[in-house]
Design a protein that fits this description.
GIY-YIG endonuclease; 7-stranded mixed sheet; 8-stranded mixed sheet; flat; 5 domains; Nucleotidyltransferase, domain 5; alpha+beta; about 625 residues; single chain
Length: about 625
């Protein structure tokens, strides 16, 4: 038998060295990862009776079944290791950066003989030049397109000069958008001059290209080539728009990130202003989770560690609203990552302080607006679920499943299952069923088959996972609902209850009773029709679930009808198999077009030989 972990004995063995400690619960799940200058002192502090350290830490300590640690040579190494472990395991008691965003860059492949300007979300050490990061991917793509238009740069992946003359120029050359170095229509030296102009543009020097475009526009106008003049006019307007978007904030022309935080007892938002080459290029806000009881400086510290561990670009300066722990260590870590000196400052006066105040105002605004949005969303979801609980007199309602049947006069009977958790659709758990045992329009029999298959599948999956000693939560059907919603009244509910009884499963079943206009008028539960306020959020949620089950079933039925229509019209023709059917539908788009086509037109399709064309033509005209 495995020896039980003795916390007090293991505490005595802790070394007086820097490192990372890992707290685990009884299921051996990592709950928390932290770093320490001295592992012996830091880890022991969790198990002392300390008042006022916060309910979240107390809750975590009460769940610790064992801990482990990794010794490092320095606190800096511990910081890096801590970041890696948090990112890998997402412990539930670590304050976490909720957003996992990657920012776009403009990449210039200057190491190539004929460089390209590309969109990239990764900054590598590959001898290319990178500009950014930017906050708008659309703006980056627009800028790249503009530069390629102005300078006629290539966008292809051909290896030049090796592939020069191997193939003819692409459409961009014929449209006047590329100088076609792939066909030798421009020398390496001349192409290099164009790249130099593009780099000058990306460095923010717009004046030369604006003058050049303006001169070309006037020259074309004097030559009465108004179409060409309009082309240069549009390019000039695009350049002006790009230039105007760059708002100057600092004459020092430096790269810096300005951080501010807004927090309350449950939520925190960190606002970041990105300044590149002295220009404010954008801003972004980030949500932090698991913050309960944590002070602002600790939340900010966790953000800095997690965000700058993941972003490929490190600015020269980080401006913070208040000091954080380990500022010198963080500075050294960022300096090592960047490869040049990085400074962390806390501005107190002047322009820097004004920028910090602006960022703080934005953070507060995001937090207040988000709270309002979350409150409305909670009313539509959690609040609505609470209302349904109150009407039905049940508790613990989290997962609801709703079912519907769709057919036309008994053709292609199908069933749908939609899932809502905490008032929101969980589309990954939706399921569709093609009815196997029922022919003709018998909704009750169809519903019985759907429910039996769904629940039997869940029971079998649970049994299989138990045999393999795997947690049942990892199965797709193993999670049973807290409430089953039937699209109908007494009849549908009784069908479901009968299936549940046969399988020995106890789940509440509620019917959604409709009026003469097919609108929900109440809920049928425990042999009683319960009224529901049509203006309540609970009623709106029931209606959304009902509509979603209906929509999902109809979409599946429509797809089967479409496949059946194509099959019935084409598959009976001799010599027309899947490949030829696909070719016909790709060419003609509809059965009617195929029916009206002449033999010559049918023969023009590469996949349709003459004998098959004749068979198709004869089939439809005999049918007519």
């Amino acid at each position: 038998m495995e020896e039980k972990f003795n916390v007090q004995e293991e505490l005595k063995k802790l070394p007086n060295q820097p490192g990372v400690y890992i707290m685990r619960d009884e299921n051996d799940t990592i709950m928390y990862v932290g770093k320490a200058i001295n592992l012996h002192n830091r880890v022991r502090s969790y198990f002392r009776k300390i008042v006022g350290r916060g309910p979240q830490i107390d809750r975590m300590v009460s769940q610790i079944a064992r801990f482990e640690y990794i010794v490092t040579d320095s606190e800096l190494e511990a910081l890096v290791l801590e970041n890696n472990l948090i990112k890998e395991n997402s412990p539930r008691y670590n304050t976490m950066l909720k957003d996992d965003k990657t920012y776009p860059y403009i990449k210039v492949t200057v190491s190539e003989d004929f460089p390209r300007i590309l969109f990239s979300r990764i900054m590598k050490k590959d001898k290319s030049r990178y500009y950014g990061p930017f906050t708008s991917a659309a703006a980056v793509k627009d800028t790249i397109e503009l530069i390629n238009k102005i300078y006629g740069l290539r966008t292809c992946n051909r290896v030049l000069p090796r592939d020069i003359g191997v193939d003819r120029p692409c459409l961009n050359y014929h449209m006047g958008r590329c100088s076609a170095p792939c066909d030798g229509k421009i020398s390496k030296e001349e192409y290099g001059q164009r790249i130099a102009g593009a780099l000058n543009f990306l460095d923010g020097n717009y004046a030369p290209i604006m003058k050049d475009l303006s001169d070309k526009m006037e020259a074309a106008s004097e030559e009465l080539n108004f179409e060409r003049a309009a082309y240069y006019r549009d390019l000039l307007a695009s350049v002006r728009q790009v230039a105007q978007k760059q708002k100057m904030t600092d004459a020092a022309m430096e790269d810096k990130d300005i951080l501010a935080i807004a927090a309350d007892e449950n939520d925190a938002v960190v606002q970041v202003f990105f300044v590149r080459d002295g220009r404010l290029i954008g801003r972004e806000h980030f949500y932090m989770t698991h913050i309960s009881g944590n002070p602002r400086d600790e939340i900010l510290l966790n953000f800095v560690k997690q965000f700058y561990a993941g972003t490929p670009f490190i600015p020269r300066e980080l401006m913070l609203p208040e000091p954080i722990e380990d500022m010198e260590i963080i500075e050294k870590w960022l300096t090592d990552r960047k490869g040049s000196r990085v400074y962390i400052s806390v501005p107190e006066r002047g322009q820097k302080e004004k920028l910090m105040e602006l960022a703080a105002q934005n953070a507060e605004l995001v937090l207040s607006k988000d709270k309002e949005r979350l409150k409305r969303e909670e009313g539509r979801t959690i609040g609505a679920v609470k209302e349904i609980e109150s009407i039905l007199g049940i508790k613990g309602l989290t997962r609801m499943e709703a079912y519907d049947i769709s057919n036309i006069s008994g053709f292609a009977n199908v069933g749908s299952m939609v899932v809502y958790e905490k008032g929101k659709p969980k589309r990954s758990d939706y399921r569709k069923f093609r009815i196997k045992s029922v022919t003709g329009p018998d909704d009750y029999a169809c519903m019985k088959e759907v429910l039996t298959r769904r629940l039997m599948h869940g029971l079998e999956e649970r049994h299989e996972l138990e045999l393999r000693e795997i947690d049942a939560q990892y199965g797709s059907f193993t999670k049973f609902p807290d409430l089953i919603l039937m699209d109908g009244g007494r009849g549908q509910v009784n069908i479901c209850l009968r299936v549940l009884d046969e399988l020995g499963i106890n789940i509440p079943v509620c019917g959604m009773v409709k009026d003469d206009n097919h609108r929900t008028r109440g809920l049928y539960f425990n042999n009683t029709e319960l009224p529901i306020d049509r203006h309540s959020e609970g009623f709106k949620l029931i209606t959304r679930i009902q509509d979603e089950a209906h929509r999902f079933a109809i979409e599946y039925h429509r797809s089967l009808r479409s496949k059946a229509q194509v099959k019935s019209s084409l598959d009976d023709i001799p010599g027309v198999g899947p490949a030829r059917r696909k070719a016909l539908m790709r060419h003609f788009k509809s059965i009617d077009e195929i029916r009206n086509a002449e033999v010559e037109e049918l023969k023009s399709i590469p996949e349709i030989p003459e004998n098959a064309a004749n068979d198709i033509y004869n089939y439809f005209h005999k049918q007519g």
